[in-house]
Amino acid sequence: MKVGFIGLGTMGAAMALNLRKAGYALTVHDLKHEAAAPHLAAGAQWAGSPREVAAASDVVLTSLPGPPETEAVADGLLEGLKSGGAWFDLTTNSPTVVRKLHARLAPKGIAVLDAPVSGGPHGAKSGKLALWVGGDKTAFDRYREVLDAIGDQVLYIGAIGAGSVAKLVHNCAGYAIQTAMAEVFTMGVKAGVPALDLWAAVRQGALGRQRTFDRLSRQFLQGSFDPPDFALKLATKDVRLATELGRELGVPMQVSDIALAEMNAAIARGWGERDSRIAMLLQEERAGVEIKVPKEDIEAVFKRDG
């Protein structure tokens, strides 16, 4: 199978090298020719444009900075790829953009799939990457082995754009949590607890011991908040005490204040005796969605993924 790779930055360079190590006939392109030096040394071929990469390949992978760069290579891939070929975009991209590109290339018989990756530079080098793929399932199955050469957790999510949605949910959650952690940690340190001691303590708490998204499985995903694991009225008291401490110390608590406002709004609904996660229903209402996943389906995911 002939594989093309466009975009040899920090992530792309490592992924492309892993494709070559897996034995694929590889053609590469980047705006900087010198970025391809290690790939050419490993036996890859250079192409001077995206069209030339596509013409030499059965499947093309792109790893680019964002939507504008992805759209910029589309003409070349449309001209160069043959019917039956596929384009997997590994970029963290806009679902709207990848859906537009899918619609544009589909009439020629070219499958466009969004396949953003998660794992960072170290994961790109080691092959310990998650890939979340959206698009035609038949094309995904046909080229699955190519994806397996760059990641150890390759997961088909659904229709075109689904992979990008999953990546944006993951990354935005991470940075929102990062902001909250910066806030509460500065409060804790200013309250007199050394940073190392504070970190060593809280990482052993309930939040620290559980994978972040696993916490959604018991109440929120199931839409089940009774009986409570931890009552909303008690959780609200805890957050109120933390924000009061922040004010005493002169530490801004913007994220925590928002959380407290949500919890107070849920208390006003008469939900104080229900599980503390029930405050999340307020956002469901605002978004106009209802989330209710059967417990057995959730358990099947845990069983599948370990």
List keywords for this structure.
12% strand, alpha/beta, 306 residues, 6-stranded parallel beta sheet, 15 helices, 3-stranded mixed beta sheet
3D structure, described in words:
The chain has 306 residues and is α/β, with parallel strands linked by helices. The chain has 15 helices and 9 strands. Helix 1 links the parallel strand 1 and strand 2. It is elongated. It starts with a strand and ends with a helix.
Q: Can you lay out the helices and strands and say which pair or pack?
A:
Layout: E1 2-6, H1 10-21, E2 25-29, H2 37-41, E3 45-46, H3 50-55, E4 59-62, H4 67-80, E5 86-89, H5 95-105, E6 111-114, E7 117-118, H6 120-126, E8 130-134, H7 137-142, H8 144-148, E9 153-158, H9 162-190, H10 195-202, H11 206-209, H12 232-249, H13 254-268, H14 281-287, H15 295-305
Helix pairs in contact: 1-6, 4-5, 12-13
Tell me about the largest β-sheet.
6 strands, parallel
DSSP E strands, number = 9
Order of strands across the biggest sheet?
Answer: 3-2-1-4-5-6
State which percent range the strand residues make up: 5-15%
Short account of what is shown:
The protein is of the alpha/beta class and 306 residues long. Helices cover 52% and strands 12% of the residues.
